[in-house]
Amino acid sequence: MALVTTAEVCDANPQLIMSGELRALQPVFQIYGRRQVFSGPVVTLKVFEDNVLVREFLEEKGNGRVLVVDGGGSLRCAILGGNPVVQAQNNGWAGIVVNGCIRDVDEINGCDIGVRALASHPMKANKKGIGEKHVPITIAGTRISDGEWLYADTDALFAVQILKTLVTSILFQKPSFMSDLDTQIPGAFDPFADASADDSGAGAKEYVHIRIQQRNGRKSLTTVQGLKKEFSYNKILKDLKKEFCCNGTVVQDPELGQVIQLQGDQRKNASTFLVQAGIVKKEHIKIHGF
């Protein structure tokens, strides 16, 4: 069972659905493979009754990616079989989505990988090597581009333009989302991490995180988390409200501890105040947004 379900994500993100950033695929796919929940960056491929390029992709290191193949919806032959799926599993692909047919279902169902396809078919595909790589495709009524993020569970599949946008928007509605994500996708990266900073090992810095969360379309909420225990969150909130005439509150989050919540986009104001008040150094603040 998914710890973070597609239903929860859709319920928490009506604004992303309306904008088209979050798109659910039509329910036309059958579930195969042992991994019923999977997610990863999308690699797109467009072919028709030909599986040479499919096999070539799956011979590469997957690095947690998802191969999404537009097979034109053909039900006349299989463009994916057991051997390539075994290879994909061994090469670290998270999943394969096929707008077409597969075969060797029993073998595929024994693989630790997620597979979605329209149906199974015993006939093999052509071997001409014709197709297009890394191009926008439309499958199950949904436009998907190379490099987007795809998430699948037993309810549905959805595509999202930027994973950071999705995680930011639901992090404080479901605080355990990041740990859930890492449980479901071993080694999943932290979209909030600063790749240029070395925060590991002895002497690692402690950061104050200031984030913006959209709510109900236009409304937004700024959160401040990670202040040292010797500082009074309530005193800081009082000073922020007085300085910038903003509304806010202090909440106790079960995952994050104390969090200051400010109405509106107060990221710049909060950062400036914390530095000028000597509460935290500028280089120890990480500001996150969409």
Explained architecture:
- This is 4-hydroxy-4-methyl-2-oxoglutarate aldolase.
- This protein is an alpha/beta fold and 290 residues long.
- The chain folds into two domains: 20-161, 3-Layer(bba) Sandwich (Glucose Oxidase, domain 1), CATH 3.50.30.40; 163-188 and 200-290, Translation Initiation Factor Eif1 (2-Layer Sandwich), CATH 3.30.780.10.
- The protein has helices at 6-12, 14-19, 52-58, 82-90, 105-109, 163-170, 177-184, 233-244, 267-276, and strands at residues 22-24, 30-32, 38-46, 66-70, 78-80, 95-102, 114-120, 132-133, 137-139, 142-144, 149-152, 157-160, 208-215, 219-225, 248-253, 257-263, 285-288.
- Strands 1, 2, 3, 4, 5, 6, 7, 8, 11 and 12 form a ten-stranded mixed β-sheet that branches.
- It starts with 5 loop residues before the first helix and ends with a strand.
- The model is unreliable at 171-205 (pLDDT under 50).
Helix content: 10-25%
CATH homology-level superfamily of the largest domain: Ribonuclease E inhibitor RraA/RraA-like
**Uncertain stretches of 5 or more adjacent residues:** 171-205
Q: Biggest sheet, open or closed, and with what strands and sense?
A: 10 strands, mixed
Instruction: Report the total helices.
Output: 9
By secondary-structure content and strand pairing, the structural class works out as alpha/beta
Number of domains: 2
Class of the largest domain in CATH? Answer: Alpha Beta
From the 3D structure, determine the CATH topology of the largest domain.
Answer: Glucose Oxidase, domain 1
Which architecture of the largest domain does the CATH hierarchy give at level 2? 3-Layer(bba) Sandwich
